[in-house]
């Protein structure tokens, strides 16, 4: 079985544990970054199939991190799938995510069914391990 490499960029330890526990059952290999700066550092040395990016974090928020990732991609020619993650359910937040360079958006609490629909739209297959 091949694992899907996912970078979870989330500052809340409880959310990290919940998402990690949930996704590890579905064929994901997960690394965690506590903020955008840590995510950028991890991206220097690693490739991830999907980045799950919290919007509101200390040090560097999700929108700024996404903008910097997209700038780096112009130089490398690669493209990461970035899914925004936020507690806010406003349409304006969804628009902000998509206009900010994210590929998709989902709200907290983390919903495995919604996440499954999103990742399958990008051609990934989640399988129960």
TrEMBL record:
Entry-linked SMART domains: REC (SM00448)
Annotated positions of the 4-aspartylphosphate modification: 54
Keyword Cytoplasm attached: no
One BP annotation, GO: phosphorelay signal transduction system
Superkingdom to which the source organism belongs: Bacteria
Domain called Response regulatory: residue spans: 5-123
UniProt entry keywords in alphabetical sequence: Phosphoprotein, Two-component regulatory system
PANTHER family: HYBRID SIGNAL TRANSDUCTION HISTIDINE KINASE J (PTHR45339:SF1)
Protein name per the record: Response regulator receiver domain-containing protein
Species name: Thermophagus xiamenensis
